[in-house]
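Appendix B, example 12.
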Amino acid sequence: MKYPKGIVKKEKHEIYYGNRGMALESDLNETNEYYLNRDIAVIHKKPTPITINQVDYHSRVDAVIKEAHFRIPSTTDYNGIYRGKYIDFEAKETTSTTSFPLANIHSHQIEHLKKIIKHGGIGFLIVRFTKCGKTFYLDGKDLMSFLQTETRKSIPLSFFEQRGYQIKDAFQPRVDYLNIINRIYFGGESNEKNS
């Protein structure tokens, strides 16, 4: 910004790191609430299993956890049931414009998704490329196929574009992934009740 007499002030841009990866989670939580309120599906975010080591009790209603640790590695982010099928998925965001780093998903999560698929459930990834403004559904079977045939350390955006399904952001539901599940597993039928 230019001021009189040649004084130049630069704008200060603050970067906040606290909520990285939370936009997709927030959108999915709103979507799942939409599904639940309309009796379409029951899908919830799984709580992270922790063991509390130390708590400060200032008062009965004002306890503060001071120290905790993760008990066991968490499996995936979300699970539930839709049209009689078990649903289980992991949601991730990446700032990359070209690929999704496989380091962002843990091996125990991949093994968990393999077991879900093996036992007849619907397992998948939802990946948001934040800088591109694109969100994709990648079916677990396609993820497993990629992992078995490729040696890359990331999944290219082109793979998501070819084998995945882009989820367009909407008002309600925000991230309508059940629409894609309907196309893949239920012959394209609508997820709205009585439609």
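The domain at 19-48+74-185 is CATH 3.40.1350.10 (Trna Endonuclease; Chain: A, domain 1). The first helix runs from residue 22 to 37.
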